[in-house]
Amino acid sequence: MPDRVVVESSTEVPPPDWGRRSAAPPVTPWLFALLATLLVIGRLVLTPLLTAPVLQTWATVFVAICVQALPFLVFGVLLSAAIAAFVPPSFWTKALPRNPYAAVPVAGAAGAVLPGCECASVPVASGLISRGVTPAAALAFLLSSPAINPVVVVATAVAFPGQPMMAVARFAASLLVAVAAGWLWLRFGRASWLRVPSRTAPAGSKWAEFRDAMRHDLLHAGGFLVIGGITAATLNVVVPRAWLTSVADVPVLSAAVLALLAVVLSICSEADAFVAASLTAFSPTAKLAFLVVGPMVDLKLIALQAGTFGRAFAMRFVPMTFLLAVVVSSAIGGVLL
Amino acid sequence: MSRLSQSLVLTLLGGVVLWITALTTSYLNYVKPGFRPFLLAAGVVVLALGVVGLVQEWRRPYANAHDEHVHEGTGKQAEGHDHSRAPQVGWLLSLPVFAIVLIAPPALGAFAARGEDAPIRPPATTGSYVPLSAEKITPMAVGEFIGRAWDFRERTLTGKRVRLTGFVVRSRKKDRWYVTRMQMSCCAADAIALKVAVRGAAPPPDDTWVEVTGTWVSPRSRKIPNGTVPPEMTAIQVTEIPEPSEPYE
């Protein structure tokens, strides 16, 4: 699969009708006008009908989550696309120590300066491995960068006003999990489990690459954010508060439930703090487990990792990370929150 | 998703975000007022990304655009690698657009605030409260009223006339209804209902916005712990008002 891009690059060969403007009319403006008209008609015809309080409340919560998360999503994607397009690959091998055991914490801590959406972190990590970085260090970066980068820390602080320790605890727990997972992989991992991806050649100009990467990441991460928003809004509106509080009152169970919820929801790390804050019935430690597990293990990441590094890798790496994340966040939550 | 559909979704999303933020105040139904500049910036970036993509698609020779559709069949494996095609999950970003345009979600109201047994967290109090004027009617936030009502040491509300603004939530009990305000710490998803029980006035319909002038009724027993029952007030006057532009506290 990694060499599929090479096939794509055949479009660089001039096609037979190069430069010849087709006689067929371009479809874009018409499609856009049609969609806009449909929306306006829908506004006039449907809006007076869609007034059921359940639906309206659901929609308000859903839209609120999307709208609140959007600026953070855009900013994170903007920066990670800029790094993908403008930072030369050689930078990484020079910056990391040669000793692999020393490289793991350095790479993990590098996640704090380098913003990357979790969907971007898998391709970035595979790029690092193919550029000669120790796999364990690249994996530590893969786990830490979506969880502890500045955008996510600020988003967490904004989502929990008056609870600054939440952002601190998230940072500490995530870094700890990333480094521990990297070291464990270094000690017990086997090279045969990991499929080292071949390097893909960049196509086109830097700016075109930047725009394409950004559009792609925004839609990818945004799509999963919408899934998270739908689930959170439905939980908010449909599930009676009493149920949530009865689960939320059991300490160990509540952390495990929210950790599993994080896996299922697959919300982008730039946005998940807002969803966590909306789960008002749960304890801070349970919310912390949600925030630590979410950027490291979730359905979309499992799919991405299995696709990039192979199934043998994902089968071992994903459960290990999940267990580490739940244990560490429970411990840190108990101390700090 | 082809480049065309990616650009279409982003254009619609950016346009709608700018519409609710720049042209109307309906973004206040979902987030806090201070969030506006960030929303504007995000809307501009998303819209620009979409419009640039649309213009590029429009300018592209027809045959080239057709070429892309041939490749579309293999697009499923493109996740995470090839950036010219986005995964199908990106279509979901059109859902917020449809929700905003077609449902036009209002600020949270009586439906969200119902559930009389829902626990009400005491609002965080910072220091002690300013003494109230004995002659004048004091306009007050619902959260402040609840905070003062629960402050057993100072009793700043006793005998004072105050005016609360909120929407109506009717009660199962005949003798009261609630003047209610939703308080959000971040966005509407984490909003909690602040309720004050109003007695001595006929209940308006649910979700009517009212100004209630009245005095605090001190609870008969001090044994009821704070946060389990809303504080009560006796109404002197109830006036219907239009919904304020900032519906949350």
From TrEMBL, chain B:
Note the InterPro entries from the entry: DUF1980, DUF1980_C, UPF0703_membrane_permease
The name this protein goes by in its record: TIGR03943 family protein
What are the entry keywords? Answer: Membrane, Transmembrane, Transmembrane helix
Q: Per the database record, which ranges form the DUF1980 domain?
A: 158-248
* Lineage: superkingdom: Bacteria
- Give TM segment ranges: 7-28, 34-55, 91-113
Q: Does the keyword Translocase apply?
A: no
